[in-house]
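Hey, weird one. I pasted the UDP-glucose 4-epimerase sequence into the form twice and got a warning about non-standard characters only the second time. First submission, copied straight from the form history:
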Amino acid sequence: MRYLVTGGAGFVGSHAVLALLDAGHDVVVLDNLSTGYREAVPAGVPFHKVDLLDYAATSAIVAQGPWDGVLHFAALSLVGDSMRDPFHYLRQNYLTALNLVQICVEHGVRKIVFSSTAALFGGPERLDPIPETASVQPGSPYGESKLMIERVLHWADAIYGIRSACLRYFNAAGADPLGRAGEDHRPETHLIPLTIDAALGRRSALKLFGTDYPTRDGSCVRDYIHVTDLADAHIRALAQIDHRSVTYNIGNGQGYSNLEVIQSVERVSGRKVPWEAAPRREGDPALLVADSATLRNDTGWTPRFGDIDSIVKTALRWRESHPDGYGG
């Protein structure tokens, strides 16, 4: 098969590219490199530096089909930033996806896998775990932008028969077990790499945002899903959308608190993690844990890296071997 991956130079997108290649598929990557890295795209994979806001340039790439599907990862993804600059997030994420979907319609692309988010569940009726049927109430403009795109895909299906998989995943973490790719955000905002860097002495004390949540230890609880397991779910989702669109929550189904993540990093690294309490961040719910039963039942998917220590081990190896990220 031949697939186009937008945002394929980013964290999750680059791991999805590896999964597609490992499965024997041909891949083309489109990315504007605003947050991704050219070095994250494997050698030999065709790459186009294109911004999805550029309709003509994007259309010219999609016209180079045929494609068996498009996997769409390209987006701004920071909850906190979206609270500070909401209209930029809403505009950027929505318009880029709208352009892509319309272009897919024009060029006869029939299958789209969309990188959605658990941030849709800002205040779910059922907190632990969260099924796909939970009420959708985004707690941030970032989550709202993803919901808007899900609705675009709904209408693309209803009117044009474009089948899609909306994958609402929780906290992507870890790194490729073979060391081919990893996490490199600038600035880094994700808890596991920040905690590892604090343990390795590469940064000052970790800030723990909120210690008064109604959880078992007062810190936020999140469902961490290894990025390789997440990429595998995207491959499996492609097989499900030959005849129908689907929506899946993707997580391990077990939540770990921020303090438990710190303890895991200390176990795996053998180092103490300096940390200090900080105020809550706007838009952060206390608890986000996935019910992935639908994905498991439909596709046979099961995580290979189901516990936090396994996730941290791969992330630690990447941080140690790539102290400067892709820049090194």
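That's the output from the first submission. The warning seems to come from a hidden character in my clipboard, not from the data itself. The radius of gyration is 19 Å.
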